[in-house]
Amino acid sequence: MDTRKLKYFLAVVDHDGFNRAAEHLLIAQPSLSQTIAGLEKELGLPLFHRIGRRAVLSEAGKELVGPARLVMRDLDAAQSAVQALRGVRSGRLDIITMPSPGIEPLTSMIADFTKLHPSVRLNVSAAFTPEEVVESVRSGSTEIGLAGSPTPIRVPGVEVLELERQPLILIVNPQADSFGSQTAVQREDLGGQRIIASQRGSLMRWLVDDALARGVEVEIVVEVAHRTSILPLVLAGVGHAVMPSSWAPTAHKAGLRTLLIEPVSHLDVAVLSRKEHLTPAARAFLDVAVQHTLEDPNR
Fold first, then answer.
1. Residue 184 and residue 159: Cα distance in Å, rounded?
2. How far apart are CA 273 and CA 137, in angstroms?
């Protein structure tokens, strides 16, 4: 087994079939099929089930994806380490983030990183749970992950750098602002209010559900999976929204005001990475993350 075969295998996985993978690799489709067939022969198991023109991963193929990504990632790390000795700061850095950390602190860290390393291209993918972030980092699909959790994240085999704690806030619907001049609200004050809520599993939704369980008559008017819809819905007068404080600067720029929700609940934000074999770009990004923690007044 060689890295070329693994590269071709991952191309078929990532591009949903042989034709698109061949186009991406700039090779003829029969050549790609022959290479995959050779890899399957070496392993003694089929990696794909051919269903018409589709290629669906077999159980063996599914098992190979993670290790194959780690091999290719480690190869990139080795090449980048050698290039770094010549002062080369190019390449690509793969990051995965949950929605709220993806607004802040990721935006500030990317801004700082790109100033220091303008020739590195960043690829940022989305996750919606800490578990997705952990799995992506462990499998080698990404090198850096940003996750938010109600409690500090502790994961065996994964390096965790705690970045900041984001208190939950209420983004106020300007068409139903009955909170006067106060800068904070109690959870009981949400009674009778129309709320735009995240899906279950998030800290924001937990706060709303906890208020309901305590007899606070909160009305969930919209349940939103894609949090990019939340600020437009508040601006449209649909309801208030419970979000981490990372959303406050954007909300303020849009002309919305925010209130701290008491008693305060925090979203613990951390950056995750493998403990070893990181590319120079990933290590440089972690240096930026460490600097962020030093500058954070809330730590």
1. 36
2. 6
